[in-house]
Every structure is written in structure tokens, then in C-alpha cells.
Amino acid sequence: xxxxxxxxxxxxxLPGGTFxxxxxxxxxxxxxxxxNAVAVGTPVQxxxxxxxx
Length: 53
Fold this sequence. Notes:
Layout: H1 2-7, H2 21-25, H3 31-40
């Protein structure tokens, strides 16, 4: 994710997995919601953290 942050690339949250809280919090609960976000949505800024293990 480093280059995306460095250059301000927009990230599309896709709903998937058992319980994708991140996508749900952004009101992206279906693939149709994600497609609509690309077509007519407005980007929002979110906080990003890094965990080093």
C-alpha cells in the first residue's frame, strides 16, 4: 500500500470475506454498490494505519 499512499491513489473498497466492516462502514455492501461508487461516487478520506509484525 506504500505507493498508493505516496501518490494519493484512490482505493475502492470491495465487499467480500466473512464480514467486511471497512466496506460496510463506507456503505459498500454489494458489488453493485462498488460499481455505483466508481460511476457516481465522491471519494472520501479515511485514516490509514500500519502494523509491523
